[in-house]
Amino acid sequence: MAMANAKDPDEPLSSQETQDSHESRKPTRSAKRAESTRAKRPTAMEILRQARGQLAELTGMEAESVTSFEQTDEGWALEVEVLELERVPDTMSLMASYQVELDSDGQLTGYRRVRRYERGRSDARRSGGR
């Protein structure tokens, strides 16, 4: 009986404290949710790193550079240069340019090779020449 009496005074206080703490946490939870949503959104640099890593994993070729990068309605579009075939001298190595598409979370949704060229040759199509 003494235990029951000892609990009774604490019970309303605990219930009140619990109710108060729930009310005070509500704004904090929604603020945390909004913050976590923002935190989950990858930065441009994270997108670039993810694109390079995912393309390397799929093709077995390391990206040397990203030559274009833009946000689209569906996510991101990049053009990535890779070394396809190493030759000596290095200026004769075969390079390739891949168009890479990612969703808004940075997950690769598609890629395709758009051109292939020797490292030491300029691309007339890109440089405005013939």
Describe the structure.
By secondary structure, this protein is α+β, with helices and mostly antiparallel strands. It folds into 2 domains: 1-40; 44-127, Nuclear Transport Factor 2, Chain: A, CATH 3.10.450. The chain has 3 helices and 4 strands, in the order ααββββα. It has helices at 2-40, 44-59, 124-127, and strands at 63-71, 75-85, 94-103, 108-118. A 4-stranded antiparallel β-sheet has the order 1-2-3-4. Strand 1 and strand 2 form a beta hairpin. The longest helix is centred in the N-terminal third of the chain and has 39 residues, at 2-40. This is Gas vesicle protein.
Brief summary:
The chain has helices at 2-40, 44-59, 124-127, and strands at 63-71, 75-85, 94-103, 108-118. It is an alpha+beta fold. The chain has two domains: 1-40; 44-127, Nuclear Transport Factor 2, Chain: A.
Q: What attributes does this structure have?
A:
130 residues; Nuclear Transport Factor 2, Chain: A; 4-stranded antiparallel beta sheet; 4 strands; 45% helix
